[in-house]
Amino acid sequence: MRSLVIMAAVARFQSLQTPTNGLVVCLAVVDFLVGKLMMPLSLVRSIDSGHFGCCFCRANFLLMSPSSAPFFNLSLMVLDRYIAVCNPLHYPARMSARCVAYCCCSAGSCLWSSPPFASTST
């Protein structure tokens, strides 16, 4: 619920639409998706792991692979604050809205297209 409030507030108010808040919205989206997609499957897996079979294991892996997205997003936020503090005059040129959008999109595409770490053969 908090993630939706953050997304709505940034979308509604023009003064909140900054590159830093773009990273916060990206983190809110990832948090929302983790809560809605990954947590229910993780709960089902912890309750009854052997009942669903191989197809459930494959689907579970595909949904669990982007679990490092919040950490990557927080790293981007640290980089953003580092540039803002150490190079405040160059900040608008280095961290533009286009740059933030590119970072968020590339992070998402890299995480969703990660290769499986375990073999799917039985």
UniProtKB/TrEMBL annotation:
It is a multi-pass membrane protein. Pfam families: 7tm_1 (PF00001). One of its GO terms (cellular component) is plasma membrane. It comes from Dissostichus eleginoides (Patagonian toothfish). Keywords: Cell membrane, G-protein coupled receptor, Membrane, Receptor, Transducer, Transmembrane, Transmembrane helix. Residues 2-98 form the G-protein coupled receptors family 1 profile domain. It is found in: Cell membrane. GO terms for molecular function: trace-amine receptor activity. InterPro entries: GPCR_Rhodpsn, GPCR_Rhodpsn_7TM, TAAR. This is Trace amine-associated receptor 1.
